[in-house]
Amino acid sequence: MTFDKYSQYYDLFYDNKSYREEVNFVVDVINSHLNGNFDSLLDIGCGSGNHARYLASFFESITGVDRSDSMVKVANEKNIPNFKALEADVCSFNLGLTFGSAIALFHVFSYLNTNDQVLTAFTNVNNHLSVGGLFIFDVWNTATVYNQPPQVKVRREKMGLKKVVRITKPKLDVISNTVDVQFDFIIHDNYECIEFSELHRMRHYSPPEIELFCWKTGFEVIKSCDMISGAPLSQDTFSATYILRKIKEL
């Protein structure tokens, strides 16, 4: 299970991520395309609730889903107003609710490695959106993965008296359009040393792939861009953001 033990240290390593800027992007999109309808939001792959923390001041209700029970626990312990996280898989959850908009940020859909998984997930999102509703998500961009292949990285952080080291080891699979990312953790806590690893298989996508998935699941692509700058996608855009509109029921 991904984000099991990792969940304890997740916020430590992503404390400097541009959550507020990404939320501003979402808010601007909804203002532009939904006339500022901030009724309800579905937060898919909500993780530890860091996007919801900033979105809560805009939306009347946010429902988060994540397949990691550890991350759901972390998110709910933050007591974010108007927000509730549930343990559920994007391919199979059924909330019996319809939302005005949905997000899946920080490469949630890159964790879907097969076409069947992607089509099932898109269909499930469609089933939880009103016609005309928006789906905003980001994924690894194929052009950038091949132009600038992921490299081994080492991060060192402190968590109280603990010294935490994370070693990221990516391995590219050009046949399956995936990258196996192994995270090795070394935690020094006084005289104790704890080590564990997690393997995250990440899929990257090209714009034509996303367009095909949309065509088959009742969506249209409104825009694709870099989320922070708003620039069009290029071989330098590692994280490709897509804004979709639901155009029909399935």
UniProtKB/TrEMBL annotation:
CDD domains: AdoMet_MTases. Keywords: Methyltransferase, Transferase. GO terms for biological process: methylation. Transmembrane segments: none annotated. It comes from the Bacteria. GO terms for molecular function: methyltransferase activity. SUPFAM superfamilies: S-adenosyl-L-methionine-dependent methyltransferases. The keyword Transferase applies. Residues 42-133 form the Methyltransferase domain. The keyword Glycoprotein does not apply. This is Class I SAM-dependent methyltransferase. It comes from Luteibaculum oceani.
